Amino acid sequence: MTERRLSVEDLHSWYGESHILHGADFHVNRGEVVTLLGRNGAGKTTTMRALMGVARQRKGTAKLDGHDLLATPPHRVAGLGLGYVPEERGIFSSLSVAENLLLPPITRPGGMSIADIHDLFPNLKGRDRTIGTRLSGGEQQMLAIARILRTGADFILLDEPTEGLAPVIVDDISRALGTLKSMGLTIILVEQNIRFATANADRHYVMEQGRIVDEFTNDALMADMSRIDAYLGV
Ligand code: ATP
């Protein structure tokens, strides 16, 4: 039976006077990988920020496992299992790989051990003392994801993890996502790389101007990729 983990209804968000999300509606089931696709500025990052409570001005409904996310203070959201890996990654240049990894507090039981993390991302193995920002872009992305997995988050919001990365490292990250999916994690992925998106996702939502305007199963999209082209301006 599919169990719904996240239900978002009529979600609005503002930055100051700018009204950015105009009533987004979508849902994510347990263990699903779901993408938010759309052009630059459509509101994908803002959706993640609104769910995490980083974007504070919000209205509507967002329920995670029955908990009202809009009524949850940002410092308690991680305790519900939601983890956010922002596009800019947030690796600290003053800290080593090990220190970056240990930085976020463990908020729930069941997080990955360092050994699990090294199995998932062998590139990070033996790099404990390396300064975080000395890693390649792809390795920094791995570190940013690993750090969240260690906290015990089992519902991950991943914002453009492959942006600017070489194809071989994109393949490494794709394999890691496959492992996380097989472990039963739930993931929302914002992604411009359609090949990566279709290799990993079960379903896709299309955002335009702060709303969800279309939805595809991965099979439907794979059967006719032209369905997404008009939305993305390909
Ligand atoms: P991108 O791929 O460019 O990040 P996106 O779909 O994730 O696209 P958002 O980053 O959510 O889009 O941005 C949605 C809109 O909100 C854009 O018009 C952007 O300029 C605006 N915006 C984003 N952050 C802020 C901010 N801190 N203050 C004001 N406006 C913002």
Write up this protein.
- The protein is of the alpha/beta class and 234 residues long.
- It has one domain: Rossmann fold, CATH 3.40.50.
- The chain is built from 9 helices and 10 strands.
- It has helices at residues 44-52, 74-77, 97-102, 114-120, 137-150, 167-182, 194-200, 218-223, 226-232, and strands at residues 4-15, 18-29, 33-37, 57-64, 67-68, 82-85, 155-159, 186-190, 203-208, 211-217.
- A 6-stranded mixed β-sheet has the order 6-7-8-3-9-10, sandwiched between helices. Strands 2-1-4-5 form a 4-stranded antiparallel β-sheet, with helices on one face.
- Helix 6 (167-182) links the parallel strand 7 (155-159) and strand 8 (186-190).
- The model has no long low-confidence stretch (mean pLDDT 95).
- It binds adenosine-5'-triphosphate.
- Adenosine-5'-triphosphate binds at residues 15, 18, 20, 38, 40-46.
- Adenosine-5'-triphosphate is lined by residues 15, 18, 20, 38, 40-46.
Secondary structure layout plus pairing:
Blueprint: E1 4-15, E2 18-29, E3 33-37, H1 44-52, E4 57-64, E5 67-68, H2 74-77, E6 82-85, H3 97-102, H4 114-120, H5 137-150, E7 155-159, H6 167-182, E8 186-190, H7 194-200, E9 203-208, E10 211-217, H8 218-223, H9 226-232
Parallel strand pairs: 3-8, 3-9, 6-7, 7-8
Antiparallel strand pairs: 1-2, 1-4, 4-5, 9-10
InterPro entries: AAA+_ATPase, ABC_transporter-like_ATP-bd, ABC_transporter-like_CS, BCAA_Transport_ATP-bd_LivF, P-loop_NTPase
Domain ABC transporter: 6-234
Protein name: ABC transporter ATP-binding protein
